[in-house]
Amino acid sequence: MFKERFAKMEEYGEDWDDKPNDMLMWLMSEAKGVERSVDGVARRLLFINFASIHTTSLTLTQVLYRLLANPEYIKPLRDEVDAVITEEGWTKAGIDKMHKIDSFLRETQRLDGLGLVTMRRLALRPFTFSNGVTVPAGTLIAIPTNATHRDESIYSNADKFDGFRFARLRGSKEDTVTSRYQTVSTSSENLSFGLGRHTW
User: Fold this and answer.
1) In the Cβ-directed half-sphere of 120, how many Cα atoms lie within 13 Å?
2) How many domains does the chain have?
3) Is the dihedral of CA 127, 200, 81, 104 positive or negative?
4) pLDDT digits (tens, 9 = 90+) for 105-146
5) Nearest one of 105, 129, 119 to 191, comparing CA atoms
6) Fewer CB atoms near the end CB (10 Å): N or C, the chain?
7) 142 plus 104 within the same structural domain
8) Sign of torsion, CA 166 179 198 200?
9) pTM over 0.85
10) 101 and 63 together in one domain
11) Which structural domain range is residue 138 located in?
């Protein structure tokens, strides 16, 4: 498959009639220099698979554990899905209206994240933060995600699972940004995906 696609790229350039529109083609199109090879693209694809598949499967596993531990959420979640699908069908607009599902996912990520810390970085040279703290070269630093997600000054009853915590906050007076309480929204209070340009 790789060789066939590279041959078409060689023959037709970057565009042809039946050019596939998939991740493999995107990676092949973006590859430059020595990376524009079967081995180079395969390495990139494996890296992406490693970074995405295990995180998604671990999160989904935690969601299932939370549902089993809290069966009172099953009916309201199912009712929301039934109502939205009846109205919208299986569309992006429909999925965007599933606030309880989204809230349940975010609350699960908040309490059962993929690690205690995120955004690990190694200082390659001494670095001074804006508050004057300096870290020497070779220092490993990270953001305390788990501690942030369990901080009582940010979340009331922070250690208690509340599957609809964020569904209630959506549309509240604290919700000044429409998407602020969605699972995928990052902030200094929701670090599951990192923050800023370090968001994954």
Assistant:
1) 5
2) 2
3) negative
4) 999 999 998 889 988 899 999 999 999 999 999 999 998 999
5) 119
6) N
7) yes
8) positive
9) no
10) no
11) 70-200
